[in-house]
């Protein structure tokens, strides 16, 4: 995974140095993430940080590539939760179950744009790749914590439709806004033999510098 991440980062740097990139950017996002189905279906607030570049800009379209960190997951409440202790089942009432999945995220988006003086609006869609860096899935009740039987996938393929806008402060500086919906195509993992699919809505703000 580290070799793949390094390769992607090198490609981004090479594209900038070769003049293919027109705008380098940094974005920070507030996310709401949950799993589809009966497990971990409640929304959790998380965050993301992306480094990227916008390039091949034309009158009505351009490409945008990003690499960064995104946190996904979900949570729910388990009622009548029981634990096997010393050969007997002990009931503890309800417990909170939480999944925290930390990914290295990579995407390249094709964006169609329309400009109004200094403001440009766009819509886009991107294939995505998530490389699992760390997971933390557990069930809590009172002051006790049990690690869940969660089988995560190391690499997850997905898609990200998006809308957004950017404002050209001057000839070099650009302020950005983006709203996206990230959904996996391949499963993110399994819990108790149930396949999990993740949905994440991301609202991000960023700043870009035109080369």
Structural overview:
8% of the residues lie in helices and 72% in strands. It is mostly beta strands. Strands 1-2-3-6-7-10-11-13 form an eight-stranded antiparallel beta barrel. The chain has a two-stranded antiparallel ribbon with strand order 4-5. A hairpin with a 5-residue loop joins strand 2 and strand 3 (61-78). It is elongated, with a radius of gyration of 20 Å.
Sequence-ordered SSE layout with sheet pairings:
Layout: H1 2-17, E1 21-36, E2 44-55, E3 61-78, E4 82-85, E5 88-91, E6 95-116, E7 119-141, E8 144-147, E9 150-152, E10 155-168, E11 173-184, E12 189-191, E13 194-210
Antiparallel strand pairs: 1-2, 1-13, 2-3, 3-6, 4-5, 6-7, 7-8, 7-10, 9-12, 10-11, 11-13, 12-13
| Biggest beta-sheet profile | 8 strands, antiparallel, barrel
Strand order of the largest sheet: 1-2-3-6-7-10-11-13
List unreliable stretches of 5+ residues.
Answer: none
Annotation, overall tally of beta strands: 13
Oligomer: single chain
Strand content of the residues, in percent?
A: over 45%
Helix content: under 10%
Structural key phrases:
eight-stranded antiparallel barrel; 72% strand; mainly beta; elongated; two-stranded antiparallel ribbon
């Amino acid at each position: 995974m580290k070799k793949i991440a390094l390769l992607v980062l090198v490609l981004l740097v090479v594209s900038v140095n070769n003049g293919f990139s027109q705008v380098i950017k940094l974005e920070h996002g507030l996310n709401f993430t949950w799993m589809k189905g009966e497990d971990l279906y409640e929304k959790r607030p998380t965050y993301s940080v992306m480094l990227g570049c916008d390039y091949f800009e034309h009158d009505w379209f351009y490409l945008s590539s990003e690499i960064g960190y995104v946190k996904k997951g979900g949570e729910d409440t388990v009622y009548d939760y029981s634990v096997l202790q010393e050969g007997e089942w002990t009931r503890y009432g309800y417990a909170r179950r939480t999944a925290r999945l930390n990914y290295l995220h990579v995407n390249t988006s094709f964006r169609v744009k329309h400009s109004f003086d200094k403001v440009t609006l766009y819509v886009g869609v991107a294939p995505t790749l998530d490389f699992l860096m760390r997971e933390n899935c557990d069930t809590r009740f009172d002051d006790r914590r049990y690690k869940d039987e969660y089988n995560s996938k190391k690499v997850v393929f997905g898609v990200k439709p998006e809308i957004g806008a950017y404002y050209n402060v001057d000839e070099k500086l650009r302020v950005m806004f983006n709203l996206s919906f990230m959904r996996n195509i391949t499963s993110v993992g399994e819990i108790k033999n149930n396949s999990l699919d993740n949905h994440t809505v991301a609202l991000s703000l960023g700043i870009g510098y035109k080369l």
